[in-house]
């Protein structure tokens, strides 16, 4: 029982002592600006290989019916910069006027200083009057080079409102994990698309708008890639790409009509598109119904072209006769 009285006496003495002292309040001279995130979420990953937009397209099936479908279109190197939003908070007091501040990029020791140039800031930002939380926007630039960087964003104290300083140390630096790498897909087929390089894969994603798919229609896709590559090299003399693509494979339907078309080649495919025009898009049913007529149109177009271009004949043999 005596022990209980002793404990109660100590507690009462302590309470009385606390009441005699002035309760301390927030007393720093300047307000602390910090990032408004949990400490384990003070970073964002920007991977340019994974960036995409969503396209919505109408498709029609049975007459009078149809619907919309959405698909990802990966942007690749065509996306020059990505906007990120940063949440900020004030460790201190809200004031009745706007306060101007600036942000700057920092990197860890040993990191290439060029990494700082891949963050784009506004000349200055404003923390709005009456607010304890605010947001700003920063752009992450596509470095084009195949790199990984960790870049920090901090308050530029020297060029900000003098009433501001860094807030809590653990919330003073927000990190951007920047990546522009294109690792080789596990199912990369060099016999179809040629040797691998990161720049080549990035070019493919940029032009086709999709990541590597071993089951893609490579007959069409490689034709598109070759055309785009030729256009790029022609418009960038001295800066041509150091990769190429093989001759595209035959379309999956070609073997069904080889008796009237002969051996596949990209040049022959292009010639057929020009010779048959609209009908070429509907080969599946149109040629089956009139194989002889289509075969004759191709043979006539072949002879006419060579007659008109005796010094530059077509680079493939005449179509078979059926």
Descriptive overview:
This is DUF4843 domain-containing protein. The protein is of the alpha+beta class. Among the domains are: 32-179, Immunoglobulin-like (Sandwich); 254-308, no CATH class. It is built from 8 helices and 13 strands. The strands form 4 sheets. Strands 8-10-5-1-12 form a 5-stranded mixed beta sheet, with no helix packed on it. A 4-stranded mixed beta sheet has the order 2-13-11-7, with no helix packed on it. Strands 3-4 form a two-stranded antiparallel sheet.
Shape: elongated
Kindly state the number of beta strands.
13
Number of contiguous helices: 8
Straight-line distance between termini: 116 Å
- Portion of residues in beta strands equals 15-25%
| CATH architecture label of the domain at 32-179 | Sandwich
Low-pLDDT sequence parts = 1-13, 15-27
Q: Could you tell me the mean pLDDT?
A: 88
Q: According to CATH, what is the class of the domain at 32-179?
A: Mainly Beta
Q: Please outline the major beta sheet.
A: 5 strands, mixed
Provide the succession of SSEs: HEEEEEEEEEEEEEHHHHHHH
In CATH, what is the homologous superfamily of the domain at 32-179? CalX-beta domain
Radius of gyration: 33 Å
Structural class: alpha+beta
What is the CATH fold-level name of the domain at 32-179?
Immunoglobulin-like
Pfam families: DUF4843
Protein name: DUF4843 domain-containing protein
């Amino acid at each position: 029982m005596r022990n209980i009285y002793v404990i109660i006496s100590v507690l009462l003495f302590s309470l009385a002592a606390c009441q005699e002292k002035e309760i301390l309040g927030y007393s720093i001279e300047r307000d602390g600006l910090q990032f408004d995130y949990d400490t384990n979420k003070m970073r964002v990953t920007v991977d340019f290989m994974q960036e995409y937009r969503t396209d919505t397209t109408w498709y029609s099936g049975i007459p009078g019916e149809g619907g919309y479908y959405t698909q990802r279109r990966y942007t690749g190197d065509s996306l020059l910069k990505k906007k990120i939003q940063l949440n900020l908070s004030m460790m201190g007091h809200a004031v009745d006027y706007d306060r101007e501040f600036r942000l700057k990029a920092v990197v860890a020791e040993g990191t290439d200083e060029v990494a700082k140039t891949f963050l784009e800031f506004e000349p200055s930002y404003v923390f709005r009057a009456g607010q304890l939380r605010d947001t700003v926007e920063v752009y992450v630039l596509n470095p084009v080079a195949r790199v990984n960087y960790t870049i920090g964003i901090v308050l530029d104290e020297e060029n900000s409102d003098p009433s501001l300083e860094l807030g809590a140390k653990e919330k003073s630096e927000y990190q951007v994990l920047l990546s522009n790498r294109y690792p080789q897909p596990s199912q990369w087929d060099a016999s179809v698309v040629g040797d691998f390089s990161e720049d080549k894969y990035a070019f493919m994603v940029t032009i086709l708008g999709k990541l590597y798919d071993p089951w893609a229609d490579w007959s069409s896709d490689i034709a598109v890639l070759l055309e785009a590559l030729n256009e790029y090299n022609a418009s960038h003399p001295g800066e041509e790409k150091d990769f190429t693509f093989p001759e595209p494979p035959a379309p999956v339907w070609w073997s069904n009509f080889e008796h009237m078309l002969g051996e596949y080649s990209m040049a022959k495919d292009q010639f057929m598109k020009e010779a048959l025009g609209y009908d070429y898009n509907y080969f599946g049913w149109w040629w089956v119904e009139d194989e002889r007529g289509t075969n004759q149109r191709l043979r006539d177009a072949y002879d006419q072209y060579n007659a008109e271009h005796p010094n530059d004949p077509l680079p493939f043999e005449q179509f078979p006769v059926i």
